[in-house]
Design goal:
It is a single chain. The chain is of the alpha/beta class. The protein has helices spanning 8-20, 23-30, 34-48, 64-91, 102-119, 196-199, 207-213, 230-238, 248-256, 286-300, 305-315, and strands at residues 53-56, 59-62, 94-100, 123-129, 143-148, 156-169, 192-195, 225-227, 243-247, 268-279. The radius of gyration is 30 Å and the shape is rod-shaped. The termini are far apart.
């Protein structure tokens, strides 16, 4: 059966005004003007063909008609609120699928997910390791932490997490004793390690570009070991097999742990950056919104971990190993 109901705004204005018996307090709750509340109530009275309030000596009272219909209208709004809360609750349950490059996931995101789990235990994060930006409408990903140039289609929301730069990294033992690595020219005596996952992008600087940028001569940029996966290249550097040109964000955890050092802090910025990406139409989804807000706060609290590692190394008391 078709039901012709008054406008929801008018019913809501009546319900709040009837609960407070005050147009002024109703206006405060609804974040509108007192005149707007009065106008909505007048519209409702006109449609119903009866008065709902009596205004006597600046005191607002319900008429018999107002008293009769107010409880049912309040119950209806309570049911609406309950339905909305259930929808929001259901959308925050279950898995949130996050696509992220494998190395950033291992070195940065995974160690921080426990914090998110403590804050939002009802949202289970499912991490999908992948380099490419997912097809959100055909894949299962809800959000992606992507490493790419800052140019995305208009339909995607892209929030910068942090910029990136490349910097030389090596095992601490390469910087000790006779023949230690002390200055960029010394690289001629050490094996260079190449991260092909980085160098396969022509816009990202490899050893040849880095050496040219900082005016280092006499070093053959083409020699050395090559790795198709960043994690393998980092492990080779940790093992002391050579000097790796790595993204600062990915090497920072091993520098903080003392497994790697920065022999000379000559960073070359990259055009690409780490970005949180999701379709704009999904920003209102509770799970997406909650994770996005948390991740942006987390990234803002960790602006330059490599600088933190270097500062800690400089502050180390004399004699401490």
């Amino acid at each position: 059966m078709s039901r012709k109901l008054p406008p929801l705004n008018a019913l809501r204005a009546f319900e709040v005004a009837g609960r407070h018996l005050s147009f002024a307090r109703a206006a405060e709750e609804l974040h509108v003007t007192r005149a707007a509340v009065s106008q909505q109530v007048a519209l409702l009275e006109e449609q119903l063909g009866t008065r709902l309030f009596l205004r006597q000596n600046r005191v607002l009272r319900l008429t018999e008609a107002g008293q009769a219909c107010l409880p049912s209208i309040q119950q209806a709004f309570d049911l609406l609120a309950s339905g909305v809360e259930k929808a929001v609750f259901e959308d925050t349950r279950g898995a949130l699928v996050v696509a992220c490059s494998p190395t950033l996931a291992s070195k940065w995101l995974v160690p921080r997910l426990d914090d998110f789990a403590r804050l939002m235990p009802e949202i289970d994060v499912r991490l999908e390791a992948q380099y490419a930006l997912p097809d959100f409408h055909n894949d299962e990903a809800d959000v992606a932490v992507n490493f790419a140039h800052p140019a995305y289609p208009e339909e995607l929301s892209a929030d910068l997490l942090f910029p990136a730069a490349v910097v030389p990294l090596c095992s601490p033992r390469l910087c000790k004793g006779r023949g230690a690595l002390r200055k960029p020219a010394d690289l001629a005596r050490f094996r260079l390690l190449h991260d092909e996952a980085l160098e396969q992008d022509p816009d990202q600087p490899g050893w040849a570009t880095w050496l040219e940028t900082f005016g280092v001569e006499g070093v053959d940029a083409g020699r050395g070991a090559r790795f198709s996966h960043t994690m393998h290249a980092l492990e080779a550097a940790i093992d002391g097999q050579g000097v790796l040109l790595a993204i600062d964000r990915l090497g920072a955890p091993d520098v903080l742990a003392g497994r790697l050092v920065v022999p000379f802090d000559l960073r070359q910025p990259l055009r690409a950056s780490y970005t949180l990406v999701t379709p704009r139409g999904w920003l209102g989804r509770p799970k997406v919104r909650i994770f996005r807000d948390w991740l942006l706060r987390t990234a803002a609290d960790d602006p330059d971990p490599l600088a933190k590692a270097q500062a800690g190394k400089r502050r180390r008391p004399r004699g401490e190993k």
